[in-house]
Amino acid sequence: MSHPDYPTEPRVGRQNQVYDHNDIRQISGSIAVDPKTNKVLIISSSKYENVWVLPKGGWENDETREEAAKRETYEEGGVKGVVKGFVGSFVDYDYMGNPKSHVWFYELEVQHIYERWPEEDFRQRKWCAFEEAMQLLRFKPYMQKALLASTFGQENNKNIDN
């Protein structure tokens, strides 16, 4: 199902979430880059204070992974754009080292930044240069890996060895 226009309220609940054969939740997210500023979007975590993350959320059974990435980026960060490519898939682990979710990241070229968005009341957004984004994502190593694997990361990684 295509989502050219998104609702003003975020989707909630997990009844339509996609899980793999091992019952691991499938997540889609984005590396959303504003081509005018060459900065990447990061957002505040909904669970932890002072923790920053890349936009991501559940892939639902009525959309493609790319559509889910675009929807989540709009819901969480108030940004719409065009998917420019697949970055890679990464596993997020719980505190015991068990796989919690499988995250599929896509590069998103930002076309519009909204002043109002569905999760604006409980999320902040921040536009960051590469080094700042890597520092702010330090609590999410898989997100740092995704950022490094993206075109944005490869073009801006001047001080960190791959």
Strand count? 7
Low-confidence stretches: none
Nearest-integer average pLDDT: 91
Helical proportion, percent range: 10-25%
User: What is the level-2 CATH architecture name?
Assistant: Alpha-Beta Complex
Which outline best applies? globular
N- and C-termini, Cα separation: 37 Å
CATH fold assignment: Nucleoside Triphosphate Pyrophosphohydrolase
Order of helices and strands: EEEEHEEEHHH
User: Can you tell me the number of structural domains?
Assistant: 1
- What percent strand? 25-35%
Tally of DSSP helical segments: 4
CATH class identity:
Alpha Beta
Determine the CATH superfamily: Nucleoside Triphosphate Pyrophosphohydrolase
Structural class: alpha+beta
Tell me the major beta sheet: 7 strands, mixed
The radius of gyration is 15 Å
Domain Nudix hydrolase: 23-149
InterPro entries: DDP-like_NUDIX, NUDIX_hydrolase-like_dom_sf, NUDIX_hydrolase_CS, NUDIX_hydrolase_dom
GO molecular function: metal ion binding; pyrophosphatase activity
Cofactor: Mg(2+)
Mind sketching the topology for me?
Elements: E1 25-34, E2 39-44, E3 52-53, E4 56-58, H1 65-77, E5 79-93, E6 99-113, E7 125-128, H2 130-136, H3 141-149, H4 151-156
Parallel strand pairs: 1-6
Antiparallel strand pairs: 1-2, 1-4, 2-3, 2-7, 5-6
Cofactor: Mg(2+)
InterPro entries: DDP-like_NUDIX, NUDIX_hydrolase-like_dom_sf, NUDIX_hydrolase_CS, NUDIX_hydrolase_dom
Domain Nudix hydrolase: 23-149
